[in-house]
Amino acid sequence: MFNRTEFGLHHPGNIIPCCKDCNKRSRLEDKSYGNWEQHLIKVCIKRGDGDKVESRRNKILLNFQKHNYPELNVNEQHAIRVIAHSLYENIKSESDKSLDLYKQLDKAFVQ
């Protein structure tokens, strides 16, 4: 998932091994996205599986260990956000240029 608010960071705080339905992140009351643990609690409660939160949390943590996910400190997280924001802006700019080119070609050859 790539989103402008959290820059689609691919680290343990933003990736959860789960089914497609559970991967549809919901927002918190303040319209922001919560971390994976908050999301897990929300999904379990919604499904009536509140008693399974801890066992599912442990499975996710074991997956982090298995794949050797790094524990990023605040400075590392900030650096990734800066880089991701720059990449997002570059992608947006290139996308806008491509769309403009397509419109020009459409106008020149189709209309």
How would you describe this structure to a colleague?
By secondary structure, this protein is an all-alpha fold. The chain has 2 domains: 1-71, no CATH class; 72-111. Helices cover 55% and strands 0% of the residues. The chain starts with 35 loop residues before the first helix and ends with a helix. The mean pLDDT is 82.
Brief descriptors of the model:
111 residues; mainly alpha; 55% helix; elongated
What is the distance, rounded to the nearest whole angstrom, between the alpha carbons of the first and last residues? 37 Å
Question: What are the segments in which pLDDT stays under 50 over at least 5 consecutive residues?
Answer: none
Label the overall shape.
elongated
Q: Oligomer, anyone?
A: single chain
Please report which band the strand proportion falls in: under 5%, 5-15%, 15-25%, 25-35%, 35-45% or over 45%. under 5%
Order of helices and strands: HHH
Largest sheet: none
Q: Which structural category do the helix and sheet elements fall into?
A: mainly alpha
Would you tell me the overall average pLDDT? 82
Number of helices: 3
Q: Kindly provide the radius of gyration, computed on alpha-carbon positions and rounded to a whole number of angstroms.
A: 19 Å
Q: Estimate the helix proportion, in percent.
A: 40-55%
Total beta strands: 0
Task: State the domain count.
Answer: 2
Helix and strand arrangement:
Blueprint: H1 36-46, H2 53-66, H3 74-109
